[in-house]
Amino acid sequence: MLGAIGNTPLVELTHVVPPDAARVFIKLEYFSPTASYKDRMALSMIERAEERGTLKQGMTVVEYTGGSTGISLAFVCALKGYTCRIVTSDAVALEKRRAMEIFGAKLDVLKSDGGKLTPDLVPRMMERAREIAAEGPSYATDQFRNPDMVAGYASLGEELLRQTDGKIDVFCGAVGTAGMLVGAARVLERGAPNVRVVAFEPATSALLAGGAPGKHGVEGVAPGFVPPQFDRTVVTEARGVDEAEGRRLSRELARREGIFAGTSTGLNVVGAIELAKEIGAGHTVVTVAVDSGFKYLAGELYAR
Ligand SMILES: Cc1ncc(COP(=O)(O)O)c(C=O)c1O
């Protein structure tokens, strides 16, 4: 199963992109075993720590997470025989929390401000993860600070170079830890040196774009601080994207493109289409379908 991570399809959006815009391609990361791109970074964080000897059998793996990372880590830990402790919150989709438990993780669920993602939430989760890690022999993967997390996305960049023959003008996506965008872009820049790399955030919390952190409802992105792995030498620009438009587009993606994905994917596609209109026909924009829509069925995204 670990070998089934990655090598995901890249498809062109042919119905939701206007005709005079650039072509928009989307990498379907929900084809990975736990249905999100986080499988790549979970495997990288675990295997690199094993190689260094900082993670050994008998130790507990501890992480704080907005959801998908927890599922991927629980999956990798199940296969490798580690106990997995996850700090998460009730702002995270119930399906994601259940999936972590089904892969064998033990959960600490913190209370959020009415199910919303507020700037104090991730720091509180980090603090609880630190407490748990101090309880016994453990390895705290500490995703936001861990360079192994970023390195896990090199494979995504390599696959994109092969799938596009290096013909990419813009690579873009929403940023949480910044691992996916920075990790893939570092590789893309070698094969497509003029690629423009654009980070997206919900417009109500567009901190990287120069705004203030705020409340939003896009799981996994815009943690309320500048993520330590966000590398401005790789990322060309950041911009806020309308979250309601992202939700609308998530539903349209299912009906018109056959792509059933999560909230952040809707945000990615709204931003990608905006960029495609700006740079015009004859160019190529690439973004990512982060995870599967099946993880969001109980929430607002696909509510009737
Ligand atoms: C659903 C979802 N979308 C987007 C992201 C952002 O990805 P990254 O952390 O690589 O910036 C995450 C990360 O947690 C996520 O869970």
Measure the end-to-end span. Answer: 35 Å
Q: Pairing-aware structural class of the strands and helices?
A: alpha/beta
CATH level-3 fold name of the largest domain? Rossmann fold
- Cα-atom radius of gyration: 18 Å
What is the H-and-E element order?
Answer: EEHEHEHEHEHHEHEEHHE
Strand content: 15-25%
In the sheet with the most strands, the strands line up as 1-2-10-7-8-9
What is the gist of this entry?
With 304 residues, this protein is of the alpha/beta class. Helix content is 37%, strand content 17%.
Describe the structure.
This protein is of the alpha/beta class and 304 residues long. It has two domains: 2-32 and 153-296, 3-Layer(aba) Sandwich (Rossmann fold), CATH 3.40.50; 38-144, Rossmann fold. Helices cover 37% and strands 17% of the residues. It has nine helices and ten strands. The chain has helices spanning 38-52, 68-80, 94-102, 121-133, 147-151, 154-164, 179-191, 243-257, 263-279, and strands at 10-12, 23-28, 60-64, 83-89, 106-110, 138-140, 170-174, 196-202, 237-241, 284-289. The chain has a six-stranded mixed sheet with strand order 1-2-10-7-8-9, with helices on both faces. Strands 5-4-3-6 form a four-stranded parallel sheet, with helices on both faces. Helix 7 (179-191) links the parallel strand 7 and strand 8 (196-202). Helix 1 (38-52) crosses helix 2 and helix 6 packs across helix 7 (179-191). The two termini are 35 Å apart. Residues 66-69, 174-181, 219-221, 262, 264, 290-291 line the site of pyridoxal-5'-phosphate.
